[in-house]
Structure to design on (661 residues):
């Protein structure tokens, strides 16, 4: 893979565009505005975005089905199913609560109009509480169906010192705006995998709000395969010292797909850590809208966040022409007392030279391509906690490769 | 008993400025059991010949034939050529990030042998071949050629040669960039491969020093995109003394 390492690089070749921009601020004016992000639960507090705004500039607004501008009817329902949620599973409590429940909002506050829209419009929230060391829980987020639009609200929370694994699977058709809160209690560890396995027509715009208590850990893996447009914006807030966030991502964008990941890790308390590794593969097709991935990695280390340790890395593998990967790592530091901070972004193409080399050893083209993609995603897939899920996702990667028939 | 026949081969390279003719009628036959050395100045088209035989997409064949045991190599895909028994040790081996050497070698062996090698014997086989070439076992877990030094890359080319056991091996400047010890190790690797099977070797080199370790049966002088003189091992000695001047002049006059 010909890699353009770190920041500030651009490369392009016949309808393949890869771009990486980087900003690095040490004190002074925050270059991205992430330090002073506007937050509100109220949709009307946000202007309708036109598409030029910093946080919308990569998103194809026309394909949002009106989730952003008030024209979506929200005529559908997104059913949230919790497997083993009938009260029979030890340590798992599933509740349906109103918006006035005092726990709602403990994960964070919406930072864009679609998240605020979902927040303003939901009537009932599903709250899943994990206590002790329960068996892995699978939650299915069902799209409202072709042509329909819906909002949803889900909160996943742990009790102190719990250790739990949750898989959230997004499936089905239609357009969905939602907020998912992860409230991780003191000393607990939440391992979560969120998959975007939507049908081809689906639009999913999701605000993820992660609040980490004292010495709490989240290991979150985001997997994006399906959908027409998927935009996921996770924010990590550390409410007390000692928190740790490990955020992994795996995306596979086909022709016409737009997969956007917007991370904000907000280090505001001392002695916390974050580690981000997101990998995307892209394969486009002639005559179809470019396969497009967008990765935004904002990491803030505020003045109070001494002894922070953070690293973030985005790698993109462009398999074909007609694909575009945008990558914007951004690290802003307001204190000199940090344990370590780094960021990098590399976008490379699976090029003819690599293919030739592998083939020259007898390896057929399709096997060569698989070898490279499997190798690329290997370190993310290896971390998927549930064996069954890992195997299914491995198979899904293979299936994605079969799509172009190479 | 294999034979590689190259007949009146013409090839051009695709550049931004259009096609540029490089090979201008190469004739050469390599039989099993023979070692041929091709020597020639920089830019004379030696690598182009190697790539054209292997099927690199940048090179277009504009005339002539390449036959392996009578089969038309030029009609085969790159991987088919390798499975038919051709191997090219490249002058500049390609880095493939994310794919481990171990995984790569096993995939290649599976493809060339037509079935996955039995795991237990395979592990031993690879370990033995790596030891022979004085390659640290740790390389098995590293990405293919990524961050390898020039010498390490060349050792791994010969490692692949020893595991894939082709009918005919083309070695493109496998000696360049090697220190004295590495040159000996790599040459011994080539000699072991040669001794173990009824195979042919086409050794492309710029210098005569590797010929002290690998004795050629035939030496060909390559200039201006074709073979301009052929002889025995003694021709290499003459080149060592007089250089290529005599031949580059002849090639210039001929073209
Ligand atoms: N990919 C390429 N693009 C442009 N020119 C090339 C390319 N490959 C080879 N050439 C040209 O073809 C000629 C022969 O190159 P090469 O086969 O590498 O020679 P050698 O291996 O004998 O040094 C040189 O003039 C070289 O510049
Ligand atoms: Mg050369």
């Amino acid at each position: 893979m010909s890699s353009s390492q770190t920041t500030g690089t651009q490369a392009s070749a016949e309808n393949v565009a890869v771009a990486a921009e980087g900003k690095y601020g040490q004190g002074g004016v925050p270059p991205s505005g992430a330090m002073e992000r506007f937050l509100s639960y109220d949709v009307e507090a946000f202007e309708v975005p036109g598409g030029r705004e910093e946080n919308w500039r990569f998103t194809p607004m026309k394909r949002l089905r009106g989730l952003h501008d008030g024209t979506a009817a929200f005529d559908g329902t997104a059913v949230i199913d919790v497997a083993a949620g009938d009260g029979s599973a030890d340590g798992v409590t599933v509740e349906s609560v109103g918006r006035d429940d005092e726990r709602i909002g403990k994960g964070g506050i919406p930072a864009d109009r679609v998240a605020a829209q979902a927040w303003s419009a939901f009537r009932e929230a599903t709250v899943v509480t994990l206590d002790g060391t329960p068996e892995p829980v699978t939650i299915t987020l069902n799209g409202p169906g072709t042509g329909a639009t819906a909002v949803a609200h889900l909160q996943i929370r742990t009790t102190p010192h719990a250790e739990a694994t949750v898989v959230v699977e997004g499936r089905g058709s239609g357009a969905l705006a939602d907020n998912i809160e992860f409230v991780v209690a003191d000393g607990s560890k939440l391992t979560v995998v969120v998959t975007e396995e939507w049908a081809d027509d689906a639009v999913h715009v999701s605000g993820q709000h992660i609040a980490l208590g004292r010495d709490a850990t989240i290991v979150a893996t985001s997997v994006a395969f399906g959908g027409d447009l998927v935009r996921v914006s996770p924010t990590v807030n550390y409410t007390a010292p000692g928190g740790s966030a490990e955020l992994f991502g795996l995306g596979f964008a086909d022709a016409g797909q737009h997969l956007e990941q917007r991370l904000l890790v907000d280090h505001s308390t001392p002695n916390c850590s974050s580690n981000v590794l997101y990998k995307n593969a892209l394969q486009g097709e002639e005559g179809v809208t470019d396969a497009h991935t967008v990765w935004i990695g904002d990491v803030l280390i505020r003045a109070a966040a001494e002894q922070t340790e953070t690293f973030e890395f985005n790698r993109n593998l462009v398999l074909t022409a007609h694909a575009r990967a945008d990558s914007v790592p951004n690290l802003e530091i307001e204190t000199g007392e940090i344990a370590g901070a780094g960021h990098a972004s590399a976008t490379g193409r699976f090029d003819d030279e690599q293919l030739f080399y592998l083939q020259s050893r007898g390896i057929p083209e399709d096997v060569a391509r698989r070898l490279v993609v499997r190798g690329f995603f290997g370190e993310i897939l290896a971390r998927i906690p549930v064996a069954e899920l890992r195997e299914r996702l491995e198979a899904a990667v293979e299936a994605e490769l079969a799509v172009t028939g190479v | 008993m294999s034979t590689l026949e190259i007949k009146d081969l013409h090839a051009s390279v695709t550049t931004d400025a259009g096609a540029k003719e490089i090979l201008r009628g190469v004739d050469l036959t390599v039989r099993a059991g023979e070692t041929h050395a091709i020597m020639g100045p920089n830019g004379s088209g030696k690598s182009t010949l190697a790539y054209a035989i292997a099927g690199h997409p940048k090179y277009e064949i504009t005339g002539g034939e390449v036959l392996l045991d009578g089969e038309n190599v030029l009609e085969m895909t790159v991987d088919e050529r390798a499975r038919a028994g051709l191997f090219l040790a490249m002058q500049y081996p390609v880095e493939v990030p994310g794919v481990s050497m171990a995984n790569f070698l096993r995939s290649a062996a599976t493809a060339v042998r037509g079935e996955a090698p039995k795991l237990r014997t395979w592990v031993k086989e690879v370990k033995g071949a790596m030891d022979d070439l004085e390659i640290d076992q740790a390389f098995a877990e590293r990405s293919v050629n990524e961050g390898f030094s020039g010498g390490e890359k060349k050792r791994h080319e010969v490692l692949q040669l020893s595991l894939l056991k082709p009918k005919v091996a083309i070695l493109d400047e496998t000696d360049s960039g090697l220190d004295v010890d590495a040159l000996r190790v790599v040459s011994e690797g080539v000699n072991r491969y040669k001794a173990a099977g009824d195979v042919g070797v086409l050794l492309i080199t710029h210098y005569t020093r590797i010929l002290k370790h690998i004795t050629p049966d035939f030496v060909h002088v390559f200039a201006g995109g074709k073979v301009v003189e052929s002889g025995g091992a003694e021709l290499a000695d003459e080149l060592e003394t007089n250089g290529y001047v005599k031949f580059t002049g002849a090639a210039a006059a001929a073209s």
